[in-house]
Design a protein that fits this description.
With 67 residues, this protein is mainly β. The chain contains no helices and four strands.
């Protein structure tokens, strides 16, 4: 099964070096296509302040990911 999307949740807010408010996003799981034509969701973790919402986005290419 290939990963088609990542599930991310809003984490804590912080200030960057310019003093602007930013939001930290936390990867919580993945979505995969199944052989039968459906999709499977695998939730790996949830943040402590989880509000019940997950965003589904396409994964970033490996070369664009931060270490």
């Amino acid at each position: 099964m290939a990963i088609t999307h990542e599930l991310i949740a809003r984490g804590e807010t912080y200030k960057d070096k310019n003093g602007d408010d930013k939001t930290r996003w936390i990867r919580c799981g993945v979505v995969m296509d199944t052989k039968s034509g459906g999709q499977a969701i695998h939730i790996e973790s949830l943040p402590i302040n989880f509000d019940g919402w997950l965003m589904m986005k396409e994964p970033m290419p490996k070369e664009n990911q931060k270490p």
